[in-house]
Amino acid sequence: MFLFTSDCSSIGCEQQQPTFDTNLSLGFPEHSNSKTRNFQVISEHFGCLGLKEMSKSVCEIIKNQKKTNLQLILSEIKKLHPQSTNTVNQSRRVYDCLNVMMAMGIIKKCDKTYEFIENSNNFQNQEIRRQIDNLSMVKFLIEQNLQEKRKIFSHLTKRQAKLDKLVFRNQNLDLDEQEQIFQFPLLVLKTQIQENIQVGYNDQEVLVQSQNIINIQQDLDVIIELNFDD
């Protein structure tokens, strides 16, 4: 949750940096490559308390006192960490910690008073549960969409297989069987038995009239209905 940078201002250092011998004042070897150790020693040199340690202390203070304000928190921090002498940056860090904890739902602020939220863990659990429910719904919709895609793919595969069988059938017909070849386009109308249908057509259109609902079958639908499984 917390980030550390090599920028001096982010560690709580004064804007005007004093000069000092890194080997003597910081107390680590000349060729040390440990950045974590460097940050820790620099922080101690300037009297700054680490952000992680500061956050933990602030949270414990508010949790124990239930309700408190910024001045009381700073006073308690000074008691817990008397070695931290940089009060300006310390106050800034405490304020940053308070803002982070309010954003996380751990504490709340009323006027100038900070209060620990007893059910903060429940709030976080509810948020996690809400996210899980949302992801579960997304998963369900994806699976449902996948099933629909599978049905469409299966239907199209069967249509293609029927068409391939018809092409193979036509290729193997003899010359005297040419009349059995189906010429496209085809138009098949499905309606009730003994239905009176009036059909009129010309070179451009076909007009069909009926008193009942008519189901028009497309070319490939006709092939599937004929069921060329031979």
From TrEMBL:
Q: What is this protein called?
A: E2F/DP family winged-helix DNA-binding domain-containing protein
Q: Does the keyword Nucleus apply?
A: yes
One GO term of the cellular component aspect? transcription regulator complex
Species this chain originates from: Paramecium pentaurelia
Sorted alphabetically, which keywords does the UniProt record give?
Answer: DNA-binding, Nucleus, Transcription, Transcription regulation
Per UniProt, residues of the E2F/DP family winged-helix DNA-binding domain are 46-118
InterPro entries per the UniProt record, alphabetical: E2F_WHTH_DNA-bd_dom, Transcrpt_fac_DP
Q: Which GO terms describe its biological process?
A: regulation of cell cycle
Pfam families listed in its UniProt record: WHD_E2F_TDP
Family assignment? Belongs to the E2F/DP family.
User: Molecular function (GO) terms listed?
Assistant: DNA-binding transcription factor activity, RNA polymerase II-specific; RNA polymerase II transcription regulatory region sequence-specific DNA binding
Lineage of origin: Eukaryota, Sar, Alveolata, Ciliophora, Intramacronucleata
User: What subcellular compartments does it reside in?
Assistant: Nucleus
Q: What is its main location?
A: nucleus
